[in-house]
């Protein structure tokens, strides 16, 4: 195999032979180099544990027998004691060799005396195993393997994944293959495998293909034409190595590696479920990119994300890292009772740790013992106890876990930015003096007009379901007040509402315009729009909103569109009907009477149209220019605020008093079973003094050199990232 193909699929970076040993013995190697050192220190062990037995003449329980038993027998004769039949476990040798009724299921070296062989070979449907109704018949080959295995002594083995990896002897280079073809610790295994299957190494890729592949693999971006040309002209022996080093120094490498990690962390900028509102989780995303870009060791990367808040004198960055476990969907509101909502978050954390670090489907043991893996329900809730002590407060839409105010790691505002803000301020002030006044709507297009706050008697009237436009002239200093409303979210009567301050919603800004609209009354399905500028400055303003069904929402202040307004959600194709009467200058709060969010100050010339009339409201080219300047100013102001403090970033924080944890019978948190204490799954055989009692101890156990799973799981994911599938094709299991 030619030197450039040391990457196999052009993604994993191979060190020179002289540097392999150094990388294997350096535990605090940087995270960027972990894409190298983890793979080449551990991957040969990982491959060997699967391939070594293939050359042996005897059958292997792990490789040949366990998959058959797991697929056909464990559902009734496996780890789940509730589903177990005949008190027989075929996943444990002691039970399998124990005499049941007339004879043992397995008699080593005597298949003719083994009940298992008798049952799988029977032609009697009442005796045959697996039973015909299970629809999992054994093939002739599978029956032969089980019989031969028993004849060879029926030796059981612990699953290779739970056995610490051992250093393997590299296979010899096959005859006729140039020794130079093996450029790293993986190549001998590949060459030996090719020899067994009587295949030859693929021809080397041309250099244009090689640079394209490795650049896409490491950064997610193609190389530029100039980079390709420079690579083709560089004929030195280490040209490829140096190009790989260059790619791994780039921030785009960190961003590409972070992409995979964000997927594992279930990252999303919105919190999911019906309302799917925004949440401030992006600072954690940036932390991940920084951590990779700054070569953070993987053990530190793990500990800080699982328990950074529990480290001595934890820094703001370490506390921010714990947002890893705040990425789960969050169903705020009245949908779930508070405790059920909290429990959903804890189970998500347990399941995520199982998938991301252990490669185990722990969630299968939430309601019962695992059907196939050596995991009991007690194991599940012992891990659950570790995550059960995170703070959770509030109720309804105000509930949730702990948050922090975070100051981003960034450079101070530059002189050029300050100068631009001053120039914008002067230009805006001059333009305001020359702006024309907004034009009134065409009377023929107006379906409702009011000169003061009121409530329309007929609730059916003005139940618009399509386009609408609302305009008003107002003057107030209130932070929160409604202008027009047919919206009562607490009363499950959503439709549309226009006002200032967003009914004191946490995501709104006091004194700024807002507009909510939903296509469902009982649960939110629509869009929320928040203005970027205050209108409660005590001055008179002409304000408006234009809703174009299924397309857009636009806010206007004094005839100028607010192009910096923040929109969240999807513009619905229709508006739900609400049984709340149209309220002018007030709103609803879980009551059929419009006594909430009452407008104080001047509110006149309120107009309602069932058409989208934003172009009539706009004051034209001058307004467009003004809108562009205001949007630029809003962005500069927003960036400046973000460089000072970001409020309400979700993180983790322990309670002072730990909660008691019980097994949830059938997964129902209301049906408490036996009390459990924090612990790792029993299959890891940790002594009592070594059992993790909190998140910090769990994180340190995960990255301990004696943990048999984590290194394999991480390497397998690297392999999957570069080659499309892992050495084990199910990376979470």
Total strand segments: 19
The largest beta-sheet arranges its strands as 5-15-7-8-9-10-14
Q: Structural class, from secondary structure content?
A: alpha+beta
- The general outline is globular
Strand portion, in percent? 5-15%
The major pleated sheet works out as:
7 strands, antiparallel
Report the helical percentage: 25-40%
Rg from alpha-carbon coordinates: 33 Å
Number of helices: 22
- Pick out the low-confidence regions: 1-56
Mean model confidence by pLDDT: 86
- N→C terminal distance: 32 Å
Structure in words:
- 35% of the residues lie in helices and 12% in strands.
- It is of the alpha+beta class and 733 residues long.
- Among the domains are: 61-156, no CATH class; 255-405 and 656-702, no CATH class; 437-618, Jelly Rolls, CATH 2.60.120.
- The protein has a 7-stranded antiparallel sheet with strand order 5-15-7-8-9-10-14, with no helix packed on it. Strands 4-16-6-11-12-13 form a 6-stranded antiparallel sheet. Strands 1-2 form a two-stranded antiparallel ribbon.
- Helix 9 runs parallel beside helix 11 (239-249).
- It is globular.
In short:
This protein is an alpha+beta fold and 733 residues long. The protein contains 22 helices and 19 strands. The strands form 5 sheets. A 7-stranded antiparallel beta sheet has the order 5-15-7-8-9-10-14, with no helix packed on it. The protein has a 6-stranded antiparallel beta sheet with strand order 4-16-6-11-12-13.
């Amino acid at each position: 195999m030619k030197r450039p193909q040391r990457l196999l699929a052009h993604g994993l970076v191979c060190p020179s032979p002289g540097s392999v040993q150094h990388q294997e013995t350096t535990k605090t190697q940087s995270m960027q180099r972990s894409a190298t050192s983890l793979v080449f220190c551990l991957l040969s062990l990982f491959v060997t544990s699967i391939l070594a037995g293939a050359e042996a003449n005897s059958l292997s329980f792990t490789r040949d027998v366990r998959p058959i038993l797991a697929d056909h027998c464990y559902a009734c004769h496996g780890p789940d004691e509730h589903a177990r039949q005949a008190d027989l476990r075929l996943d444990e040798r002691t039970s399998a060799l124990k005499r049941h009724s007339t004879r043992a299921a397995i008699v080593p070296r005597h298949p003719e005396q083994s009940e298992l062989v008798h049952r799988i070979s029977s032609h009697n449907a009442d005796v045959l195993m697996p039973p015909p109704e299970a629809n999992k018949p054994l093939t002739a080959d599978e029956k032969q393997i089980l019989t031969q295995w028993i004849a060879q002594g029926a030796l059981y083995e612990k699953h290779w994944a739970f056995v610490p990896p051992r250093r393997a002897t590299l296979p010899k280079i096959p005859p006729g293959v140039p020794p130079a073809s093996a450029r790293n610790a993986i190549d001998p295994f590949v060459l030996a495998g090719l020899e067994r299957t009587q295949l030859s190494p693929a021809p080397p890729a041309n250099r244009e293909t090689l640079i394209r592949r490795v650049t896409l693999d490491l950064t997610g971006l193609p190389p530029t034409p100039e980079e390709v040309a420079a690579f083709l002209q560089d004929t030195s022996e280490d040209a490829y190595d140096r190009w790989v080093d260059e790619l791994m120094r780039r921030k785009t490498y960190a961003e590409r590696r972070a992409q995979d990690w964000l997927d594992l962390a279930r990252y999303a900028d919105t919190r999911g479920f019906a309302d799917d509102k925004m949440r401030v989780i992006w600072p954690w995303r940036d932390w991940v990119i920084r951590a990779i870009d700054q070569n953070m060791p993987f053990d530190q990367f793990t500990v800080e994300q699982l328990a950074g808040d529990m480290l001595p004198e934890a820094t703001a960055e370490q506390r921010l890292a714990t947002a890893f476990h705040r990425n789960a969907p969050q169903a705020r509101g009245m949908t779930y009772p508070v405790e059920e909502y909290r429990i959903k978050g804890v189970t998500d954390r347990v399941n995520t740790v199982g998938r991301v670090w252990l490669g185990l489907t722990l969630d299968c043991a939430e309601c019962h013992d695992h059907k196939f893996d050596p995991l009991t329900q007690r194991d599940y809730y012992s891990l659950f106890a570790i995550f059960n002590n995170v703070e959770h407060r509030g109720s309804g839409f105000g509930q949730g876990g702990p948050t922090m105010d975070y100051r981003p790691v960034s450079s101070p505002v530059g002189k050029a930015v300050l100068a631009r803000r001053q120039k914008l301020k002067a230009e805006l002030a001059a333009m305001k003096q020359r702006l024309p006044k907004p034009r009134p709507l065409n009377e023929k297009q107006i379906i409702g007009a009011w000169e003061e706050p009121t409530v329309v008697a007929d609730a059916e009237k003005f139940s618009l379901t399509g386009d609408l436009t609302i305009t008003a002239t107002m003057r107030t200093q209130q932070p929160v007040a409604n202008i027009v409303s047919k919206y009562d979210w607490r009363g499950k009567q959503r439709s549309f509402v226009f006002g200032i301050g967003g009914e004191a919603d946490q995501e709104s800004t006091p004194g700024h315009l807002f507009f909510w609209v939903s296509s469902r009354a009982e649960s939110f399905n629509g869009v929320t729009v928040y203005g970027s500028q205050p209108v409660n400055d005590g001055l008179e303003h002409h304000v408006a909103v234009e809703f174009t069904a299924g397309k857009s929402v636009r806010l206007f202040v004094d005839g100028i569109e607010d192009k910096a307004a923040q929109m969240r959600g999807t513009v619905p194709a229709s508006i739900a009907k609400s049984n709340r009467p149209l309220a002018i200058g007030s709103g609803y709060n879980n009551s059929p009477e419009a006594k909430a969010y009452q407008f104080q100050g001047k509110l006149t010339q309120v107009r309602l149209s069932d058409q989208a009339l934003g172009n009539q409201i706009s004051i034209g080219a001058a307004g467009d220019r003004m809108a562009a300047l205001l949007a630029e100013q809003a962005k500069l102001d927003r960036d400046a605020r973000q460089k000072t403090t970001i409020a309400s970033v979700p993180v983790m924080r322990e309670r002072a008093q730990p909660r008691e944890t019980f097994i949830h019978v059938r997964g129902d948190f209301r049906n408490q079973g036996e009390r459990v204490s924090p612990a790792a799954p029993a299959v890891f055989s940790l002594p009592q003094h070594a059992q993790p009692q909190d998140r910090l101890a769990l994180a340190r156990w995960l990255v301990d050199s004696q943990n048999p799973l984590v290194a394999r799981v991480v390497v397998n994911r690297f392999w999957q990232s570069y080659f499309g599938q892992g050495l084990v094709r199910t990376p979470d299991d």
